[in-house]
Amino acid sequence: MEKLRVGLAQVQSRIGDVGWNLRRHLAAIEEARSRGVDLLVFPELSLTGYVLRDLAYEVVGACRAAVSRLREASKGCTVVLGGVDEVRPGVLRNTAFVVSDGRLAARVPKFYLPTYGLFEEARYFEQGDPLKDVRTVGLGKWSLGVAICEDLWHPEPAEALSRMGAELIACIAASPARGIGTGHRGRDGVWIREAWRAILMATAITNTVHVAFANLVGPEDEEYFWGGSMVVGPDGSVLGEGKLFEEDMVVCDVDLGENSRARRFSSFRVHRREFHKLLSEL
After folding, report:
1. What would the 3-class secondary structure string for the chain be?
2. pTM for the full model?
3. Annotated catalytic residue within 149, 150, 167, 171
4. CATH topology classification for 3-280
5. Is 223 one of the annotated active-site residues of the chain?
């Protein structure tokens, strides 16, 4: 049974200031290393800030250099972080980079780009292609899956990753505060926190995997990110949880052997492909 120490670096990023954000990443990696963390997860677009708009085109070179620096800093651990990737000249993707023990292990693009309400990602980014870009990352004796924020508001990415062998899904997110003080919702009066808690628990339970969710925190332009990062076990239990509205480093131990235990009492092994065929024709 593989046991891991997982860290969630709930950081605030500065919009477009890759140098400042890189220094924050390096400091968090050193803290995590001192605490024996095997896997450290940063939020979505943690290297660049989320509310980039046209700045997305200006940060590509700095982001590429920062990922290279973080690759060198990842000796002895695995780090998942967010940034902008240029896949063809002028074609950008919102991307999760996985650096592990001195190598760039994977680039994973975002598949569902929210472009509603306050979100406008499809104006700047190209969506990933599930048939080419969904992958798991082999890390010694265990396998990692990565999803980016909105991807977990749809069941397919997590199901695909789990069936491809992912034992832990790292979800990097930039979820702004919504539904605060609406009175319905949630022990802290933060609706979006309870919505995410429900999604993460459902993802973990239905796919019998561990899920590690790292969310941005703090102000960016007119938005404010709420933090609340958490690790959820395959039975839906919350194993570690970050503070609201302030930076935090969440560290907890997970036993990936619990995935197998959970599958004894689930129908995960049953997969009806006909439903996917039906959905593809609707």
Report:
1. CCEEEEEEEECCCCCCCHHHHHHHHHHHHHHHHHCCCCEEECCCCCCCCCCCHHHHHCCHHHHHHHHHHHHHHCCCCEEEEEEEEEEECCEEEEEEEEEECCEEEEEEECCCCCCCCCCCHHHCCCCCCHHHHCCEEEECCEEEEEEEHHHHHCHHHHHHHHHCCCCEEEEEECCECCCECCCCCCCCCEHHHHHHHHHHHHHHHHHCCEEEEEECEEEECCEEEEECCEEECCCCCEEEECCECCCEEEEEEEECHHHHHHHCCCCCCCCCHHHHHHHHCC
2. 0.97
3. 149
4. Nitrilase/N-carbamoyl-D-aminoacid amidohydrolase (3.60.110)
5. no
